[in-house]
Amino acid sequence: MPGYMNATDSSQEPRSGSALDDAPKAIPPLPDFNGRVLGSAAFCAIIVAGVVDGIFHQNMLWLLAAGLVWPHAMTLISRRIDLYRQPRIHQYLLLGECIIGGAVIGLTGLTPVPALAMTLMLMFSCLIVGGIYLWFYGTLLLSAVAGLVVGLMGVTDDFTTPVLTSVVSLLGTGIYICVTAYYTHIQARSLLAAKGQIQKQREQSIALSDKLSKYLSPQVWQSIFTGERDVRLETRRKKLSVFFSDIKGFTDLSEEMEPEGLTELLNNYFNEMSEVALRYGGTIDKFVGDSIMIFFGDPSSRGQKEDAQACVSMAIDMRNHMKIMRQRWRSQGIRTPLEIRMGISSGFVTVGNFGAENRMDYTIIGKEVNLASRLEQLAEPGQILVSYETFSLIKERIMCRDKGEITVKGFGRPVAIYEVIDFRRDLGPNRSFVEHEHAGFAMYLDSGKICERDRNAILEALEEAADRLREEESDR
Fold first, then answer.
1. Nearest to 112 by CA among 59, 155, 70, 60
2. What's the pTM?
């Protein structure tokens, strides 16, 4: 007797690799019990009509009891073994019903109309519950069993079907198909509504996560939302490279500018420096006043040496970019010279989530953090100071100058420090950059970053400036 299985999520099921396992898990339209009751009632009505018309043997009336008990028995079994959580078992159960249905069809002697009606109901159930795969296996089993029973019991002598049996068969099949089609329509509408709601919630979640991502470094946000890291109070020891910077002259500028203009300038500075940091893979920890704290090596790391080199490379790029920003600010009427100073230290720190269960801060603590902050405070405008540990990791690629030793709280011995000069490849006659800054003139040229499209425009601008200076010189 055909019945329909309740929809469940099959994503957690183990796959056995059989062809039936690959069948699409279509969501059935009728509850399990109701579907079986309707199918069993149609089967029983066809058998009764056939017995009344005399084309079926009276012994087939015992199938009425089985048809009445079947839905209740299957519901009881389903509850006991929790079949509602196993869609594949539901499909196997429907295949069992195809076997029983094939036997009943065989007992009818393949009387055309009743046999066709029962077959249609069973195949319709297979198509909806399991798609073409279940329909194929169901048809195969039904045909095999019906053929076996017919081989044992024989085929009907008269292939004409009386009116009553034909009417009941067609009416029962029609009602079964119409009712299940109606439930399919209702469920399809419900699924569409649910899909729309899920899509709406998904868009809201994306918008919310995008807003929340502004408060976290991209690396931290990604590790949380991809499930790589749990949001709980936990820390670990790890070797990182820590960077601090601030703006020399910012305090004087804050006394000259209005708060609104100062805020806009500071946000613009933070925005551009953040882009530089992210380009090198740095994790932005926090902004404090005009200071920036960044670290390399967590939550993702390319190795201690690569992290240190990326950190110092970022600092050099920031120092160079500050010259471009200074020209822009000068054109906006800001005359106070703003210089960036930076400190970098490498070593073991404690990194992770600090705070309370309901309010956490992903940050780092340790003496290397204090050392980087101290180096930033000691640095002159435009200077990058690094610890000996950082120097040992970057010295092959970056030229540094020994600046002696300093005493730092938390360190038992004086700490050797070094000043970053530049990349070794950019030193000497083959360097890719040229820079000059005087009253009324500022230029920063990095030929390695100029594309062919901009080269002619830059040459024309330089020639025009040179012609102007020559004309003024000749007029004197």
1. 155
2. 0.57
